[in-house]
Design a protein that fits this description.
The complex is a heterodimer. Chain A is mainly α. Chain A has one domain. Helix content of chain A is 74%, strand content 0%. Chain A has 11 helices and no strands. In chain A, helix 2 packs across helix 6 and helix 7 runs antiparallel to helix 10. Chain B is an alpha/beta fold. Chain B has 2 domains: 229 residues, P-loop containing nucleotide triphosphate hydrolases (Rossmann fold, 3-Layer(aba) Sandwich); 70 residues, ACT domain (Alpha-Beta Plaits). Chain B is built from 12 helices and 14 strands. The longest helix of chain B has 17 residues. The chains are: A mainly alpha, B alpha/beta. Chains A and B meet through helix 1, helix 5 and helix 11 of A and strand 6, helix 3, helix 4 and helix 6 of B.
Amino acid sequence: MKANASLAFSASEKVTGWRLFLKTIVARAYPRVIGMQREKSWMFFDVFLPMLAVSAYVFVYRAIGAPEEYVGFVVIGGAMTAFWLNILWSMSSQLYWEKEQGNLALYIMAPNSMMAVLLGMALGGLVATALRAFAIIIIGSWIFQVQYSITSFTQLIAVFLLAMTALYGMGMMSASLFLLLSREAWHLANLAQEPVYLASGFYFPIKFFNFWIAAASSLIPLTLGLDAIRQLIFPSGALLGFLSVKFEIIALIVLCVFFLAGAKFLLDHMEKLAIREGRITENRR
Amino acid sequence: MSNFALETKDLGRVYKIRGNKKESQERKELIALENVNLTVERGELFGLLGPNGAGKTTLIKILTTLLAPTSGWARVATHDVNLNPNLVRPRINMVSGGESSGYGLLTVRENLWMFSQFYGMPSKEANQRITELLTMVGLEDRINTKSSDLSTGLRQKMNIVRGFLTDPDVLFLDEPTLGLDVGASRDVRKLIRSWMDADKNRTLLLTTHYMVEAEELCDRVAIINKGKVLACDTPANLKRNLQRDAIFEIETSPLNGLTDKILAEQAEVKKAALTEIEGGAKLELILTDESGLATVINILTEKNIKVRRFTKREPTLEDVFMELVGQRMEDVEQGGAE
């Protein structure tokens, strides 16, 4: 240890309130974004492997002579699966992993808001995953010669942002839920992965579901988001859409409010339970 | 209102544990803390000394707002930890021994910066302190190393820096040198002492089951076992009570059926602990006075046990613990108290 160092720190001007909230979001998003830069394996696992699934559906559609827009549907669906995988494996399971690692107790003990921690995780995950999704769209569109025809750029941006807000709100809510309901987050994530691929219509328009099944599937924000995006970027998209884009936008706003409020409620409940019972922040070391 | 940095009154914590499904649905109760009354002055380095499972970590969890007490109350920096956790949290920080917090993909600096942001520190100031503190613990050359590439000891040093980084009014260190080698433990103890010496308003609560650590660092020590505080005073005062006793360490040939119970039955023997060592045994004895040694030697002779080495020594905190609990801390731990 260096003998001449000083530990008489000058009084620190620590920020509080909304500025602490923002600092926490940025700080917690940082590992997600920077982690992706350092772990290059995502290019293989998150771009190349989903491209294989996309290719399989493209070849099926072409073999049966389906309209060419279906190829575009599949490429966009493939890109959106990246967000779903991120929600499952990085958002929903995150508080569980944080507990196992010993970070959860430190987050609760710090003066920051736990909601800001979750928002930081979501923002970091969204930014990192958007790059993967974008890569899938660019590569898929180039390989399969997908043609786009955007009818309303403003609506497209609005739908994407609303779908992402609702989706990551759902991820934030399920983060507390996974922690509260079960220690086997791994199995829960596995259980939710494939059914959502089907229910959200990643590789086909959900219009072909029975109305009530499609309506129930619409509780997953990706379903309506994907349906609206397809309507807005493909010439025949509107014909294959489940509901009108305007109605889907309203539904997405409702889902955003529901999931974010649910996330806040469950997070507060989780924190209270953790402090009352003393088990939730314990890792299994 | 009092001006103590830490204060507890009749503090208790009972855990309800689910039993076997086949057994009754009633939950068993485990008393982790019972009627703990402690006060720690501002500027004090206070030690909690006890074996694993004594309730030290439970107490720290309550004081750091991570766990609610089931009875009594606790205040940190004059604020009730249960009623006003949001007033307590900006004033505290905690580091646990052997923790694996942070993210392996981030460098040492990035991990520490991230945690500083959760306390609202300006980035520039945080980075400056990170460099200073890492230099003090000899980790400055690893500042840009990914934390997953650090050894356990170096990672623990990083965690300890995280605790000091936010310059809390009250810092909780839960077994900070657990698993560290001798050199690293020494560095950590020096850092703790320097941090306390640099500002007399800082308070530090240290839990440890290393007697030497408590003796070297702490202004006062509370000895805790099975959730109860058995004694609380300066290390010197705790030992002073034993100074009228005679404390001996005797190394012998194998014990030939001698047990500590046989020794403890003698009127002159206050406490006795036997440990088997290679090729023989070690006896640690607290006697009412030196004359009691003759009785012990007689017993050894009767059992045909040879004395190989014999030392009279000054009391240590280990002796204080043995006097209070009736067993050495090591033996209590082996008995699986919690």
